[in-house]
Structures are given as structure tokens and as C-alpha cells.
Amino acid sequence: MTEQLENLRNFNHYEFNSNVKVTLAEYIWIDGTGLSLRSKTKVFHHEIKQLSDLEWWTYDGSSTEQANTKWSEIYLKPVVFVRDPFRGAPHLLVLCETYLPDKKTPARYNFRWLAQEIMEKAKEYNPWFGIEQEYYLLKRTGTTHTWPLGWPNGGFPHPQGRYYCSIGERNNFGRALAEAHQRACLNAGLKIAGINAEAAPSQFEFQIGIAQGIEAADHLWLARYILERIGEEFGIDINYDPKPIKGNWSGSGAHFNYSDSKTRSEGGYEYILKTLIPDLEKYHEQSLFLYGSNNIDRLTGAHETSEYGKFTWGDGSRGGSVRVPIITKELGKGYFEDRRPAANIDPYLVGSTIVDITLLGGTYLDKLKQELHKSAQPLQ
Ligand code: ADP
Ligand code: MN
Ligand code: MN
Ligand code: MN
């Protein structure tokens, strides 16, 4: 029974009666780890047409590492809603920001408010993002142990080389899950641009974009939510560790492809080379602070990464911190790819960092770092 429950593929076992007219809104938020999501359901007896139809709600922050038991309540402020691909229409997934009881102080690891302020300031330049989210699929090999899907328990598969964009039973472990995720994201209305099997066996990627400003980060978080939920159904743990398996196995990144009205205009390529690359280099160390934890284990210079301590770039190079695609060079305008962010980033922080450096003169970097530092402190 437990087995069956763990791998339940269809949870719609009890259909609603036709006279039940409700909207189930799944309120979703980032918890006190800064990476895991939590969610709970609220039943509405009326139709939800706009954000203001969804009220603020509360939860027990002492159970999510965001509050102590005495002063435990945290507010949920709905900020984006999309179709719920699991429950179907008219039900919704609702991404929320978190606030302390004064309704003004952001709770631990809520950075969206700051990202919104930064994106608002840069709005006239229309910053676009395409985010590549890499992840591993892990299966359970015991109560607490996990190991990549398709790998022999405690052992290793054939070395890398044949898994990237692979087909075939020997090479591709978990396509059904990645495909289910892509479809669910499209059904939800998310801007997902594609999927591919990655360089390590049982490693995949999905891309969010092209999306403007804060929407890219909102959609990435919602796509992560859907991925975890699909993982539940397949009995698979989704892993965003920058280097989950030590040794000669690729780590997971979250490349940020970026452009704005200046890089997309005539002379954009020159502008990227002469202005943006030097600025990105200047703020390299500060950026890395905001580009995910344990990223130093991933940025080794091997496996299509650059070295942690050194900023490098190249036309069409996958060994640099930043790649300027050959199409950008060819057209003389376009976008660049920041390859440094780790898979476990908060896209609000990374998107803000790039926009701040390229469009706002780095004026928000200290604030961004401060906010992250503050959230990382143990609870009072
Ligand atoms: P890679 O070759 O690095 O694996 P991908 O195809 O996985 O590249 O991802 C590239 C991403 O760049 C896509 O998601 C795409 O939406 C995005 N992209 C393309 N053009 C632009 C642009 N002008 N601005 C921002 N992002 C872009
Ligand atoms: Mn890619
Ligand atoms: Mn990739
Ligand atoms: Mn890439």
C-alpha cells in the first residue's frame, strides 16, 4: 500500500459533484531554506478573476524556519497566479511573497520585493531573460539515501559523453518525467522554452523564457514547484545541488541568457564587449555571492564551466564565465549568457544582479548582498 501511495500517478480519485462550484487555490511560497517551496490549499467559493480576488493568508512560520514559535505567524501575499495543471480548471497555483505580522517586513528569503524595485527602475530598457535550469533526478535507495536514476545502486554508469541530448534506453534516464513537466508547465501557462537531457546521466534541463523582468523569476519558481510535484508522482527527488556527485560528473547550473534594449539595438555587440563585459568582470566577486551556495564546487574550469576565482568570457565559449553567442557577433546585436549561476540560485537575486550591473551602475549590489546575508542568519 505504501509503495502504491508513494508512486500514485493519478490523484483525482474523488471527482467533484457537479453542484460543487469551488476554486482550489494552491498558495505556494519559498521557505526558510531559500530553496524549498511549500504550499497549502485554500478553497474559494467564488470565481478568481484577478489577483485582488485572492486574499492574504497566514501559515506557521515556525515550521518553515521563518519564525519562532511564540511569534509564529507569517503572511502570504499572492503575487502571481496561473492555471493548476494538476487539478485542472478553474483551480489555480498561486505564487506568494511572505511577510512578518506587520505585513511590511519581508520574511526570511523573500527577495521578490527588492527584485521588483530593481526591475521597475530598469523597466524602460526591457530586460529579457532566458534561464536554463539544470537538475538531477534522484531515486531513493533506502529511507534516507538517494542516488541518480538509472545508476547502479552505490555504483557508477558509463562515463559522460553519450548522455547530453541523448536518446536510447542506455543513455536517457527519466525522459518521461521531463516531458510530463514540460507539458504541465505549458498547461499552466508558463513561459517554458524547451527541455533537454544534460551531460550527466539522469541530469536534465528546462528553459524559462524569453520573459521580461520579474516574470522570468516568477515562472522559474512556479516551474520548480510543478517539477517537484511531478517528482512526487514518479517517486523521484529533484536535486538542484551545484555538484551533487563528486568526481567526473557534471554539476548543475542555471545559465542566465540576458538582453536589453541596448544589447538588442544596432551596435549591441560592441556595447556588450566594451561596456558590459568589463562591468561584469568588475563585479565578479560580488556577483558570485549572489549566484548560489556551494557553487565553488561546480565552477572548477572542467565540465563546461569557468574557474570560480577568475572572470573570463569568449565568443561562443562554454569555458568562460560569460559566453557571447556567435549569433550575437554575427548580427552585431543580441544577448549574452552568464554561465556562472548555480542550479540552486534564487532567480530574483540573480536577475536583479544582472540588471543592476548592466543598467543601474551596480547601485543595488550591496543591498542585495545585505538582504541575502540577513536571511542566512539563524532565527532570533
Ligand atoms: P545553450 O546553448 O546554452 O544550452 P539554451 O538553448 O538552452 O542555450 O538556452 C538559451 C536561452 O536563451 C533560451 O531559453 C532562449 O529563450 C534565450 N534567449 C534567446 N534570445 C534571447 C535574448 N535576446 N534575450 C534573452 N534571452 C534569450
Ligand atoms: Mn541549455
Ligand atoms: Mn545546460
Ligand atoms: Mn547555456
Low-confidence stretches: none
Q: Give the strand content.
A: 15-25%
Classify the oligomer. single chain
Instruction: Please provide the count of β strands.
Output: 14
Helix tally equals: 9
Which fold does the CATH topology of the largest domain refer to?
A: Creatine Kinase, Chain A, domain 2
The largest sheet, given as strand count, sense and whether it forms a barrel, is:
9 strands, mixed
How many domains? The number is: 2
The SS-based structural class is alpha+beta
- What is bound: which ligands? adenosine-5'-diphosphate, manganese (II) ion
Look at the structure and give the CATH class of the largest domain.
Alpha Beta
Task: Give the overall shape, derived from the CA principal axes.
Answer: globular
Indicate the mean pLDDT: 94
CATH superfamily of the largest domain: Glutamine synthetase/guanido kinase, catalytic domain
Q: Would you identify the CATH architecture of the largest domain?
A: 2-Layer Sandwich
SSE run: HEEEEEHEEHEEHEEHHEEHEHH
Keywords: ATP-binding, Cytoplasm, Ligase, Nucleotide-binding
Domain GS beta-grasp: 23-103
InterPro entries: Gln_synt_N (IPR008147), Gln_synt_N_sf (IPR036651), Gln_synth/guanido_kin_cat_dom (IPR014746), Gln_synth_cat_dom (IPR008146), Glutamine_Synthetase (IPR050292)
Protein name: glutamine synthetase
Structural write-up:
The protein is of the alpha+beta class and 380 residues long. 27% of the residues lie in helices and 23% in strands. Strands 6, 7, 8, 9, 10, 11, 12, 13 and 14 form a nine-stranded mixed sheet that branches. A hairpin with an 8-residue loop joins strand 4 and strand 5. The longest helix is centred in the middle third of the chain and has 21 residues, at 214-234. It is globular and about 60 Å long. The N and C termini lie far apart (42 Å). The relative contact order is 0.13. The mean pLDDT is 94.
